Amino acid sequence: MKVLGIMGSPRLGGNSDILLDQALAGARDAGADVEKIVLYQRQISGCLNCESCNDTGTCAIQDDMAEIQQKILEADAIIHSGPLYYWAMTSQMKAYLERWCVFCDAEWKVHKTYANRIGGKRIGLIAVCGDLNVSAAEPIVRSFKNTCLDMGLTWLGAVQVSAAAKGEVAQNKAAIKEAYQLGKTSAARN
Ligand SMILES: Cc1cc2nc3c(=O)[nH]c(=O)nc-3n(C[C@H](O)[C@H](O)[C@H](O)COP(=O)(O)O)c2cc1C
Questions:
Q1: Whose CA is nearest to atom 1 of ligand 1?
Q2: Quick one: which H or E segment has residue 81?
Q3: pLDDT tier for residue 189 given thresholds of 50, 70 and 90
Q4: Superfamily of domain covering 2-186
Q5: 84: pLDDT confidence band, cut at 50, 70 and 90?
Q6: Distance, CA 103 to ligand 1 centroid (Å)?
Q7: Which of 39, 106, 112, 128 could form a disulfide with 83 if both were Cys (CB 3.0 to 4.6 A apart)?
Q8: Does 11 sit in the ligand 1 pocket, CB within 6 Å?
Q9: Nearest residue to 121 via CA among 84, 69, 81
């Protein structure tokens, strides 16, 4: 069982980072091999809509996303974590998500190259916002959930947390527990 953590905040040691570490601890405790990728430390540009992946199943852009795409294919579960920036996901997370395009064909069905390698993967999300009303982060939840369901992946759900100052979430025991549990669930054997 492999669980991949994708950290979408540029603030290392911040709230998304802390919660993702908790989720990965949960996955590790459930017996999974875990790996964390900090998108901010990688070179990832957005999709160019060049359509070359529709034919080839590979992306024309040569950057760090090629390696991450392989890790996605190898993972049983992927947990994403990131903050709300202007009622949306961060630019780092958006560029990453756009590049999932490589897994789809021209009709937005899973590309034949990946037919047996993508379906059923478990996808989880941790969304942090400064707003006291955690539903402010719904746009991020919708993006990930719709992507997941559209591609026949398994949606594990979203942990939605309010936190503003760096590291503040470490004091929120309920959020820490929820993130840990998400990780544990992601690695549970059926
Ligand atoms: C550029 C920027 C835009 C933000 N926009 C919003 C927003 O639209 N709504 C909100 O509730 N919080 C917003 N925030 C606050 C962050 O979501 C909040 O500080 C969060 O805890 C950051 O998570 P991190 O520590 O994982 O980076 C914004 C913060 C920044 C830096």
A1: 85
A2: strand 77-83
A3: confident
A4: Flavodoxin domain (3.40.50.360)
A5: very high
A6: 30
A7: 128
A8: yes
A9: 69
Q: Which residues of 37-54 are buried (b: 16+ CB within 10 A; e: fewer)?
A: bbbbeeebeebeeeeebe
Nearest in space to 83 (alpha carbons), one of 128, 130, 36, 40: 128
67 contacts 95 by C-beta, under 8 angstroms = no
Structure tokens of 161?
A: 């947390």
Residue bearing the CA closest to ligand 1, atom 31: 85
Q: Whose CA is nearest to atom 15 of ligand 1?
A: 130
For 146-161, the pLDDT digits (tens) are 999 999 999 999 999 9
Mutate to test the pocket of ligand 1, among 9, 86, 94, 134 (most ligand atoms within 8 A of CB): 86
Angle between helix axes 138-150 and 91-98 (nearest 10 degrees) is 10
Distance between CA atoms of 4 and 187, rounded to whole angstroms? 10
